[in-house]
Amino acid sequence: xxxxxxxxxxxxxxxxxxxxxxxxxxxxxxxxxxxxxxxxxxxxxxxxxxxxxxxxxxxxxxxxxxxxxxxxxxxxxxxx
Length: 80
Known about the structure:
Elements: H1 2-9, H2 13-26, H3 32-52, H4 56-67, H5 74-79
């Protein structure tokens, strides 16, 4: 997980997102909410970067992916 965040911070966004997806598939014992929250956070950060670069359509797409992610699932909200 930390490696994915480090990759993202080093502007290796695609590699970071791919690593998150690989971790999700490989780590069946890991809390899926943790992976969803990190993936959602990275999507929001990409949306902010796109917005800062005046790429409004890309930003809207990134924010939509973040909102539709599993982190906002009612399954997890009810567990809180």
